[in-house]
Amino acid sequence: MSPSVTPLSPLLVRLGRCARAARRRVRLALAGERREHFFDLTDTELVTRALGAPPTGTGDAARGEQLYELRDDLRTHFPLGLTPAQRGAFLRWHADHGWDAIPAQPLDLLAYLRELDATPDRGLVATYLVQPEWQAAQPDALTPAGWEPFKQWLTAKYGVQSGWLRRATLPRDLPPARGDGVNLLGLFRYVSGLQQAAVGVAESFAAVGVPLTLRDIPTRNNRDGRRRGAFLSLEPHPVTVLNAGLDMPVPEAYRLAGLHPRPGVKRVAVWFWELEEVPAAWHDRGRDVDEVWAPTRFIADALRVLGKPVYPMLPAVRLPAFTPRPKTHFGLSPDRFTFLFVFDMNSRLPRKNPVALIRAFRRAFRPDEPVELAIKVSPQGEFYPDWWRELRTAARDAGVRLIDKNLSRDELLGLMNAADAYASLHRSEGFGLTMAEAMLLGKPTIATGYSGNLDFMTPENSFLVDYTRTVIEDDTPPYPKGCVWAEPSVAHAAELLRRVFDHPAEARAKAERGRSELRELLSPAAAGARMTARLDVLRGAV
Question: Which of 41, 79, 243, 348 is the most buried (most CB within 10 A)?
Answer without folding.
Answer: 243
